[in-house]
Design goal:
The chain is 88% helix and 0% strand. It has 5 helices and no strands. Helix 1 (2-42) crosses helix 2 (46-52) and helix 3 (54-79) packs antiparallel against helix 4 (83-97).
Length: 134
Amino acid sequence: MHAQGQEDHAKDRRTNVIEGTAVSASLLCLVHCLALPLLLLLLPGAIGMFARTDAFHYVALALVVPAALAAFWIGYRRHRARRPAVIGLAGMACLVVALLPGLGRGAELGITVAGSLLLITGHTMNWRLRAHAA
């Protein structure tokens, strides 16, 4: 039994790392959107140029989506609640929609902020449900 307890503890630690990474990535998206104007004033040059490009958003999306999918899948397997994943998927969909061409800066910002907030909400719910399912 002791070995099973250690195995469960290690699994919980791995899950916490994945969930923490996913929440952090979602929070990073939100901070990026809200702090970008300040960042551009304080850090001109290469960082500012990269942060304004679509490439930044694609790189961020490439980091956020796999981490979020892994976290929601692990959470679902543990607590069997679909709601956190549905909210998280809606957030990821917002982030994808925000990258579509033709959106104005205001629409892109609003959709990205909404997506980040949905992801953070889904991850928070997932984390709490997973903790109570233990």
